[in-house]
From TrEMBL:
The lineage of its organism: Bacteria, Pseudomonadati, Bacteroidota, Flavobacteriia, Flavobacteriales. This is Thioredoxin. It comes from Chryseobacterium hagamense. It comes from the Bacteria.
Length: 187
């Protein structure tokens, strides 16, 4: 895990990489994902500007005496990640170091943390100070999983567009609070 940590980037580098891929796509996927990069960067910017840490959650973090690190597997183009990652980074800022490992640059890490056999992101890996894995979380909070379940159970009536719309409305209103709470419970 220490090797993955060393290859991971800061949040600022993560956002900059997303901007570079949007402006100068290096491959067909980056060209095809142009719209997703644009949306992701907009959502990241909105979350960074509007995020305010919950005082109770900050107290809970302090009470955990967690001295480890937070490694997030992510990509800027991901809708779940663009709404969750900035809130996590802001929440842990000044308390626990957070780095982001770009999933598409090396699939070996995500393949160790699959979600129901998929490479779903973001995936938060909670590391002890010795780089052993304490726990992992992701790719979305429980309410997001419920929405996905509703879509999968009846895609004819609860369409993909409705699912994505409801999910993004939830993320915009919740501003990472549920994700942070679920991660706090894993510390």
């Amino acid at each position: 895990m220490e090797n993955y940590w060393e290859k991971a980037v800061s949040f600022e580098e993560y956002v900059q990489t997303g901007k570079q891929r949007l402006e100068n796509p290096a491959n067909q996927q980056e060209i095809d994902y142009k719209h997703y990069y644009e949306l992701g960067l907009q959502r990241i910017d909105r979350t960074v500007k509007k995020y305010v840490a919950d005082e109770e959650q900050l107290k809970e973090l302090a009470s955990k005496n967690f001295t480890g690190k937070i490694l997030i597997i992510s990509e800027v183009w991901c809708g779940d990640a663009s709404s969750t990652v900035p809130a996590l980074v802001k929440f842990f800022e000044g308390k626990n170091e957070v780095r982001i490992f770009l999933r598409d640059s090396d699939k070996s890490l995500i393949n160790r943390f699959l979600t129901n056999g998929t490479e779903s992101i973001p995936k938060v890996i909670i590391l002890n100070s010795d780089f052993s894995v304490k726990n992992s979380w992701g790719p979305r909070p429980e309410y997001g999983r419920q929405l996905l379940g509703k879509f999968k159970a009846d895609p004819e009536h609860y369409t993909r567009d409705l699912f994505y719309n409801d999910l993004q409305l939830y993320y915009a209103k919740n501003r990472g609070k549920d994700a942070i709470q679920e991660i706090l419970e894993l510390l």
